[in-house]
Write a structure and sequence with these properties.
Number of domains: 1
Helix content: 25-40%
Distance between the termini: 47 Å
CATH topology: Rossmann fold
Number of helices: 11
Order of helices and strands: EEHEHEHHEEHEHEEEEHHEHEHHE
Length: about 300
Amino acid sequence: MSTNLSRRVVGSNVWLGYSPSTNGNELAALPVYPIIPDVLPTEEAVGQAMLKEIEALAATKQGDLVIILLGGRGAQALHRIWGEIARASSADELLARLHVFTQDALAPMRMNNGFSFVRDFERLLGPDFFRKVKSFTSMRTDTQNLEEELSSYVDKLEAVGGIDLLFLGLGPEARGASHLAYIKPGSGSSAGDLAGMIPISSSILEHHIKKFIAGGSNVTEADQAECRAATHILTLGPAVILSARRIVQSIVDASTAPGKPESYKNLRETELSANPDERAAQLNDNPGLWLRLHPNVRSLVLPDVLID
């Protein structure tokens, strides 16, 4: 493990971060921001809006760009558009500036499993995209030492200067809660945690499998069996999310994930407490709320995500 990272265990969850972590009083002092839905008519329109975010970033920043991809349905339209662009040459200069990272993974699992986010990225983005970008870095899930891999992953992300643009979704959880990246309710994450290794739950496995099948991923029965046998989720932590210079959230799959409207409503309407202990408990119960502590979020949704 990197000597710069400390290891914190909460129940069966392992979190890696800097010591000392942000304490409760500092967490409670962070400003709270509203999430304002940017409602678009189609999944294709959401993908186009995400592409424009990348183009705007390229126009306003010189040099390399660091982007975190979103897996599952939320960014599939973007990835299809990007794949088409990569097959031509008009965006080659932009692509050559990109350091591309993933944000989470199920483990242990073969890297060529059809339920791996990396395989889905390859299917949609195509070989030209990966050939043209400056770098592509994913969390390895076929190693015996997952913690060491996670620590190395954080080091690589920091070595390129941190995140310019982080694409996020919103995963539904029981009682209208949500997971962000794959920070699970009750996993004990804190504002100082850069990455975590979380025991997997049946609900997350089912959500993961359903969204990949609904999105048209190329999967086999053997892939599904191995996916169901995964024991952990590797995920970026709240510290990385809060450090991103811009976040673009996309939610396009309420029709196949019917819990998302309630989760999104709670994300927007929950009043975060100014009491340190109460706020920490709220974030632990509903990790999607970490998004409310970031000052630069755009939330792209389809109309069926919104409920009264």
